Amino acid sequence: MIYLDNSATTKLDEEVLNAMLPWLREHFGNASSVYSIGRRARVAIEDAREEIASLIHAHPAELIFTSGGTESNNTVLHSACVESQLARSVCYSAIEHHAVIHPSEQLAKLGIATAVLPVDSQGILNCDAAKDILASVPHRTLISVMHANNETGMIQPIARLRELSANAFLHTDAVQSFGKIPFDVMELPIDFASFSAHKIHGPKGVGALFIRKGIDFKAHQHGGGQERNRRAGTESPALIVGFQVAARRAVKEMKVRAEVMASRIALLRELLTSTIGNIRINTLIEQSLPNILNISFLDAEKLDGESILQSLDIQGIAASNGSACVSGSLQPSHVLSAMGLPAAEARAAVRFSVSKDTTEAEIRTAAQALAEILTALR
């Protein structure tokens, strides 16, 4: 099987798995317990917190562990507007992951004002339009704009947002970007950031939330007093240690991995543009992650997006038409729709993503397969 889908490409690294196994087999204590195996788990968790925090130049106290990006996003949005009452409105970009869009819509049902910030035809936040929208918000707001988009790979102008609204709280979903491009909370003027381990060859089911020191942030999830009373629930030492090792390797090898992934994407782009007609490239080289290429077809009215993906799968190639979390919905990509693409194009688009392990041979096989599939469908 050739994996060119965002969730499938980042398989668990062997080193990560080996680091996790002792915490599943021998050191299985509850980190909130006072006995020795519990204390050992606590030490491991705090060591992981310190190292992961250092990778983004944060203080360990600014990082809490969660079950992943979705929980981190939900926690920020709900706590900021409800439990902590830091903001009375939410402004988010039109290309956010549904883990931001859907909780924002739920907040709107609770009476929290919401506004959508538009993007341009390249999928980059329209700062001029955003400035006007943010200026019209009469009270303090929480702005949520992802660091890089999961469907197109386009990197967003996060630093510019602070200039547009100096008094707002700023959150960024960094699930897609962390470990692939530099992420430094000392340089980015953000208050909150969401991370997930499985996008960097770590385990699924664990992530983190950065909360800048000094913010009175109250728990959204209640129960025990774990994570400094900011996220209740028994921590998993195995998952957290796996996250630690994956993050360490991703940051250490970032430059080499990026070069490999960028070369694979460049080859794929070249092969697709030379062998497939009526194609639109929706990912710019200059301002995108090194691992994603999104394409659509100018004659999409003749094509069935589901058939394209199913045909690729039959040939042993895993790809998607958008976010892996909603790829079975057959709805037009909300990201491509926000960029102004026709509904047929947004529905039949294909999103390829590669990893450090993707080979040139796999890229050539995938490009040839897609060309043959489109010839048959057209």
Labels describing this entry:
2 domains; Aspartate Aminotransferase, domain 1; 14 helices; Aspartate Aminotransferase, domain 2; 7-stranded mixed beta sheet; alpha/beta; 378 residues; single chain
Which stretches of 5+ consecutive residues score pLDDT under 50? none
Radius of gyration: 21 Å
Count the E strands.
Answer: 12
> Looking at CATH, which topology of the largest domain would you report?
Aspartate Aminotransferase, domain 2
Structural class: alpha/beta
CATH superfamily heading of the largest domain:
Type I PLP-dependent aspartate aminotransferase-like (Major domain)
- The proportion of residues forming helix, as a percent range, comes to 40-55%
What does this structure look like?
The protein has 378 residues and is of the alpha/beta class. The protein folds into two domains: 132 residues, Aspartate Aminotransferase, domain 1 (Alpha-Beta Complex); 239 residues, Aspartate Aminotransferase, domain 2 (3-Layer(aba) Sandwich), CATH 3.40.640. It has 14 helices and twelve strands. The strands form three sheets. The protein has a seven-stranded mixed sheet, with helices on both faces. It has a three-stranded antiparallel sheet with strand order 9-10-12. Strands 1-11 form a two-stranded parallel ribbon. β5, α7 and β6 form a beta-alpha-beta unit. The longest helix has 22 residues. The protein is globular, with a radius of gyration of 21 Å. The relative contact order is 0.16. The model has no long low-confidence stretch (mean pLDDT 94).
